[in-house]
Design a protein that fits this description.
With about 190 residues, the chain is an alpha+beta fold. The protein has helices at about 10-25, 30-45, 50-55, 110-115, 175-185, and strands spanning about 60-65, 70-75, 75-80, 95-100, 105-110, 125-130, 135-140, 140-145, 150-155, 160-165, 170. The strands form 2 sheets. It has a 6-stranded mixed beta sheet. Strands 3-6-7-5-4 form a 5-stranded mixed beta sheet.
Amino acid sequence: MRTASINWQEVRDRLEASENALQRALSENPERVRAAYRQRAIQLAKSPTQARFAPSGVPGLIFRLAAEKYAIRLADLAEVLPFNGCTPVPGGSPKFLGVLSLRGELRPIVDLGLLLSEKPSGDAGFILILHRQIGLKVDHIEDLREIRPEEFDASGHERYTRGLASGSVMLLDVEAVLSAVFSAKES
């Protein structure tokens, strides 16, 4: 077996060449800076700008109450939980199912089916916890999708909705729902 010999001069030369290349790369040479800016300008000119400025839709969660489809903006939601029951509050409005302890804090839960269609929702379902620390009980979660401006029709506006999307999904007006719940609670 023969051992390979190492040419130490060649190793030193390669190491010195690498150090010199690194020093040149790290130095602030005005011509290098101009070349970098020029290259960046060429890359930006080639990239499609229309995709960046295309109008985007509203991300929403599609859910059901009985046979009706609704959507709520994701910006209004804090989290979604399965409904496992809640503690009724004596003397509370029928629209309030009760309170739910969520990480040690009590959250009021509103029966959205009873509020919107005056028909109570079933025992199963989900709770949509809003950023306003109130929960809305719904029957079923269907989808998560973006509601595009071209598919939204504001003429379908009703008391608790902002309009229709895709002709069959009602976009929930969270402010109207909350004002109805709290004004009914105070009266």
